Amino acid sequence: SRLPSRPKRSSAAALWVNIDVPPDLDDAVLDIPIEVKVEDRLYASPALGWPTKCGTAAAATGALGMGSDVPFQDVGPDADPKSDDVKEYGSGLSGHAASLSLPARADTDVTTPQDGPFVDVRSPVFVALGRKMIFERPLSHGLPIVSPPARYLSAGEARVVVPVAEELKTTLARVVKGQAAPIVPPHLERTIFGLRPGAMQAEFDMLLFTEGVDSAAAENMVDDAPWFGRPGHAGPRLMRQLRPPRGPALPRVPVDLATTHGRRTFVALDDKDGRFPKPFRLFAGIATVLRRINGKGSEESYQIRVLGMPLEPEWNGELTLQITSPSYATDKEQELAEALAQLGLLTVPPKGMGMSASLSIDRFPVPFAKATWAKKPGTGAIELTLRGADTTGLRARLDQVNGDSEVILQIRCAKEADNTANSFAPNDFPLGNPPGKAYALEPETRRKFALRLPVRPTSRPSLKIDPATLVFADPSYDRELSGPGSSDPQRDNDGRMWKLALDRFEYGPDTPLYFAFGEIDPSTGLFASPGLKPKDVVLTLQRQPASKEGRRLPAEPLTIAGVSKVGTNGYEIEVRSAYGITFDRLLNEDHPVSFLDGDQIVVSVSFKDPANPDVKRSLSVRATVVPRPIIAPPPAVYSLVAFTGTASKPETARAALHAAAPLPQRIEFIELLEDLAIGHVRRRALFIWTMSTPPAMSPRSATLVKIDRAGGAQLPEQKSDIQEPCM
């Protein structure tokens, strides 16, 4: 049999009759106003369906049956299990589980062909579910105005639409290779979690029907616009009241599962308490933490503290940093020094830019000329002293510092390398680079971190304060930061795959751009090592302005400040190396470039084909630049609860630091080069908070509390969850 042909007009149009209303001849001069009481006003019911000629009988048979409806909380085990199975530690989830019974239906035509592919979409049945908040509204007599009902606040949907038959058939034909017809399952179970805890909600379920198999009308809203859908006949709604339960305590998982399944905070995988990671680090003074994956694939963290704080106007131009690591014991100072050289702190590269450091006093830079380092036997610490700062005129600047001033120590490490035998820094080594010299674009990653230093003026009275630094990370937020990036793959005549990849599809003005280029290994999907090295690999950058009034504007060439060029606007790069560029370094004709909403950054790489040097190939990737932040904050609240007191007085607890959905202070990469090749970049965030308190209120111990969007909480459960400040 053949499907009935679609009519020219919708069958719903036959129910509408046009009535010509005569004009008001006296312009309402003689009209008598009619007073209508508010309680007598009759509004259109939001429960009515579309005015169609049939389908209501089928909808009436679609009543649902309600089965069990129970809340659940996975509170986890009473004691920490000794297992590597993540299910043994609990999920920390909460939500609702419900079951539904549905009428047994299989609407299809008996004339359906028995052989060959066929998808019957004339009378599909859809299962719809929805959820809306329940608000407590004032009574009608308390409202100053009279308006139609707010249907967007009604418990059920007023008008529903379903996909048209042709669009549904086109979509299903892509996945259905045989025969398919609509059927309603007799039983459904669903579990919902992640809702706002404690909020009253109305949840409804229903079946949506169409005209039926005998109807010749397709009932499209608009015949030539199928994306508007067609009316759906809603069956009886099953309505229930829902109040999501609050999440339980977040599960405590061991170090091996922290980054993949953990929801509690941590600092680094090597900073642990037994089998479990430490939830945070509280340092006395100004400090930070650097994390790195070493050459063996394990994570190491380095804790850096600034000694001799606060600064005073009589400062002698030297700053000392104390560096320790949980990965190295107290008698492993030499191994720690070698690890710091691999990190880029204790290294002097033979070529390129080395480590640099400067002190910024209200944006007035004071660079350091050299540095010395020494091992502290028996402590497991390395002390790095920055020297050679020009202190001319600094006394007055430091004496004028107030509460709004910013005194920041900025350090940029040399390039990371697992083999530093030829570049290990002597105990006294120079910092910085010759001023005014342009260098080639260097591969990443070169770490850069900043420490805000306290200053105590001496020419006027000032309050003595004790600074402290809180450092923590959230593994659940790290998983949200990861995401895909744009790329341009291309095969040469020999079948080799070349790829140019970016780390994002969108960038903000303050978001660095990372990219890499090279040959892809077909067996691993990573950049081939060693792989072929084509000649004349040149990078070019362009700004593509957004089109105006449908007119495409020409692209503008861009240059990078402080980087030596090849040709007019090109830059030489290496294959199988990741590079990073900040947008504030981009210039257009030696002027800073400003990206507007809708503009694109165009990254292109040209190279000579290794198999045929006479052939020049080019890859190009585009990404949008938007004038808004592209990094979303974590959906959680963090509070540092500090405990103070003396032996003679009871201890008191106070919220020393508190933030809802804060942005991180630093974002790091796990394996940037490998992730660019695969197309999914993993990122990790680090929160570094500082606080200053009078000595009498300095925390003797503290704990970190986290509450996520579902109400799950990280609370102190063991003595190790309450820490004393690291001195």
What's this model, at a glance?
This protein has 727 residues and is mostly beta strands.
Kindly describe this structure.
This protein starts with 55 loop residues before the first helix and ends in a 13-residue tail after the last strand. The protein is built from seven helices and 45 strands. The model is unreliable at 1-17 and 44-49 (pLDDT under 50). The chain folds into three domains: 11-242, no CATH class; 255-428 and 444-479 and 632-721, no CATH class; 485-625, Sandwich (Immunoglobulin-like). The protein is 7% helix and 34% strand. Helix 3 (255-261) crosses helix 6 (475-481). The strands form twelve sheets. Strands 29, 31, 32, 33, 35, 36, 37 and 38 form an eight-stranded mixed β-sheet that branches. Strands 15-16-17-21-20-23 form a six-stranded antiparallel β-sheet, with helices on one face. It is mainly β. A hairpin with a 5-residue loop joins strand 27 and strand 28.
For the structure shown, list the relevant keywords:
727 residues; mainly beta; Immunoglobulin-like; eight-stranded mixed sheet; six-stranded antiparallel sheet; 7% helix; 34% strand; globular
